[in-house]
UniProtKB/TrEMBL annotation:
Residues 311-324 have a biased composition (Basic residues). Catalyzes xyloglucan endohydrolysis (XEH) and/or endotransglycosylation (XET). Cleaves and religates xyloglucan polymers, an essential constituent of the primary cell wall, and thereby participates in cell wall construction of growing tissues. GO terms for cellular component: apoplast. This is Xyloglucan endotransglucosylase/hydrolase. PANTHER family: XYLOGLUCAN ENDOTRANSGLUCOSYLASE/HYDROLASE PROTEIN 8-RELATED (PTHR31062). Its EC number is 2.4.1.207. One of its GO terms (biological process) is cell wall organization. The gene is LOC102599785. The keyword Ligase does not apply.
Length: 334
C-alpha cells in the first residue's frame, strides 16, 4: 500500500514538473519558417537573428504578420513585449482568424492588448467568435501581475475540438469549454495566426476617451519565441495533412492541471475586470455557457463601473472595421 502511494506520488510529481515547465522546451520557429508579412511595409522589421520581429504604429500605418499555414487545432504561442509609456488608443492583437476565407461565418480566437495613458497599465482582453457569431461578443478583460512593456512574456492559445485555453506565461487565465448550447459559436474551422498593431482610438482606452498621440510614435511591439504547433491544413481543400500524426510533444500542454486550475482561479479573482457574462446592458440573459456567481457580480460592479452596465463601446464593430481595412491594404494575404 505504502509503495503504491509512493509510486503514485512520484508519478504525479513527474507530470507536474513536465507540465509546469512547458515553456522551456517548446518547438520555436524562426519568423520566416512560420510567418509572412501581412501589411505595414517598413513598419515590420525582422531582427538579425531571424527569430524576433518588431511591428510598429506611426501616423502613416500600423503593421502585422500572418502565419503561412492555416491550422486546425493546436498550441500557438509568442513572447511579446509591448510599447511603454503613453500608449492610449494603441491596440496590439495576437489572434487566430479565418475572416478572409469565411466572410459571413468566420471563427476567431483573440488576445488583444489595450494601451493606456501614462502611469496606467496595459489591459488584456480575450474573446472568441464561432461561425460568424459576431453579435455575441464573449469578451473578458484583465489586469496583469506584471508590466507587459517591461519585458517579454509568453502569450499562448491552446485550441482543441472541445476546449480553448488562454495562457499568460504558464498560467491559464481562461478556459472555454464547448457546450451543446453554444452551438456553432465555438471556433471550428481552420484559422491563421495573426499579429497586428493598429490605431484603436475609437474604443481601446476608456471607450475612446483617450486617443493615440502620435507625438510618442512610433509605438513598437516586439514578438519572439514563435510556436505554431498545430495541424496545418491545405488552404484550398481545407483538409488536414496531419490527422493523428502530430507527434506528442511533452512541452505542449493538452489541458489544465490541478495546480494550474488553482492559479487560474486566483488570477481571475484578482485580475478580471470585465466579463461579458456579467454585462446586463449587453445581455439581458447571459449567453448559455455563463455560470453567474453573485459574489463576482458585486466585485465586477465595484471594479469597473465604466464598462459594467454603462454605455457599450461598440468595439466589436470598430474592430471588424479595422480588420477589413487591414484586408484592403494587403494584397499578399491568401
Ligand atoms: C454555420 O453557419 C452556416 C451559415 O450561416 C450554417 O449553415 C451552419 O449550419 C452553421 N454551422 C454550425 C455548426 O452551426
Amino acid at each position: 500500500m505504502v509503495n503504491y502511494y509512493m509510486f503514485f506520488f512520484i508519478f504525479l510529481s513527474c507530470i507536474l514538473v513536465l507540465v509546469s515547465g512547458f515553456s522551456r522546451n517548446l518547438p520555436i520557429l524562426a519568423f520566416d519558417e512560420g510567418y509572412s508579412h501581412l501589411f505595414g511595409d517598413n513598419n515590420l522589421m525582422i531582427l538579425k537573428d531571424g527569430k524576433s520581429v518588431h511591428i510598429s504604429l506611426d501616423k502613416r500605418t500600423g503593421a502585422g504578420f500572418v502565419s503561412q499555414d492555416l491550422y486546425f487545432h493546436g498550441f500557438f504561442s509568442a513572447s511579446i513585449k509591448l510599447p511603454a509609456d503613453y500608449t492610449a488608443g494603441v491596440v496590439v492583437a495576437f489572434y487566430m482568424s479565418n475572416g478572409d476565407m469565411f466572410e459571413k461565418n468566420h471563427d476567431e480566437i483573440d488576445f488583444e492588448f489595450l494601451g493606456n495613458i501614462r502611469g496606467k497599465d496595459w489591459r488584456i482582453q480575450t474573446n472568441i467568435y464561432g461561425n460568424g457569431s459576431t453579435s455575441v461578443g464573449r469578451e473578458e478583460r484583465y489586469g496583469l501581475w506584471f508590466d507587459p512593456s517591461e519585458d517579454f512574456h509568453q502569450y499562448s492559445i491552446l485550441w482543441t475540438e472541445n476546449l480553448i485555453i488562454f495562457y499568460v506565461d504558464n498560467v491559464p487565465i481562461r478556459e472555454i469549454k464547448r457546450t451543446k448550447a453554444m452551438g456553432g459559436d465555438f471556433p471550428s474551422k481552420p484559422m491563421s495566426l495573426i499579429a497586428t498593431i493598429w490605431d484603436g482610438s475609437n474604443w481601446a482606452t476608456n471607450g475612446g476617451k483617450y486617443k493615440v498621440n502620435y507625438k510618442y510614435a512610433p509605438y513598437i511591439a516586439e514578438f519572439s519565441d514563435f510556436v505554431l504547433h498545430g495541424c496545418a491544413v491545405d488552404p484550398i481543400e481545407l483538409s488536414s495533412k496531419c490527422e493523428n500524426t502530430t507527434p506528442k510533444t511533452p512541452s505542449i500542454p493538452t489541458g489544465i492541471t490541478l495546480d494550474q486550475r488553482r492559479k487560474m482561479e486566483n488570477f481571475r479573482k484578482k485580475q478580471m475586470q470585465y466579463s461579458y457574462c456579467y454585462d446586463k446592458t449587453r445581455y439581458k440573459v447571459p449567453p448559455p455557457e455563463c455560470v453567474i456567481d453573485p459574489k463576482e457580480t458585486e466585485r465586477l460592479r465595484a471594479f469597473d463601473p465604466v464598462t459594467f452596465g454603462g454605455s457599450h463601446h461598440h468595439h466589436g464593430k470598430q474592430h471588424r472595421r479595422s480588420r477589413s481595412k487591414l484586408k484592403d491594404d494587403d494584397v499578399s494575404f491568401m
